[in-house]
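Journal club side-thread
Mid-discussion, someone asked how the predicted structure for our own chain would compare to the paper's figures. Pasting it here so we can look after the session.
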Amino acid sequence: MLDEIYTQAEEKMKHAIEHMQKEFRTIRTGKVTTSILDGIKIDYYGTPTPLDQVGSVLATDATTITINPWEKNLLGDIETAIQQANIGVNPNNDGETIKLFFPPMTVDQRQESVKQAKAMGEKAKVAIRNDRRWANDKIKKLEKDKEITQDESKQAQEKIQKLTDKYVAEVDNILKNKEAEIMKV
């Protein structure tokens, strides 16, 4: 039963890190990636549909993204959705494709992106600590119900703390790498 708690706690902590990394993809770094458009949905015949499912989305160079919709009648909808998403660029519609030209990032923009990344990292750490609390509560309940001894409870809580420290350190490491990536000119 303690092994089950360890396994569940570790899975939850891994999920917090995966979620943080997924959020990191939406942060702009020096080189533009198509994942900056991941949150944008188009009304496709009444269904909110991700942008990459209504056309091809390509990063043609370090500062340009080209969107080539499969149905040309979607150009206006895509253009409107990008403007509403407020990603820092205006779409250029040439009647065939939409091009997004991202200007090179300024130092202030880079610092703002680093702040965003740090906030996301902090949210991941909070989630990991909440997972620790959840596991410790389960362990204390087992001790209270006399299913494990006080010594076993103490050892189990120490093991959960080691897991927590491991994943918090992993968050710090990922965050440090992301910060370096953002600040690299």
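Post-session note: Residues 1 and 142 are 9 Å apart (CA to CA).
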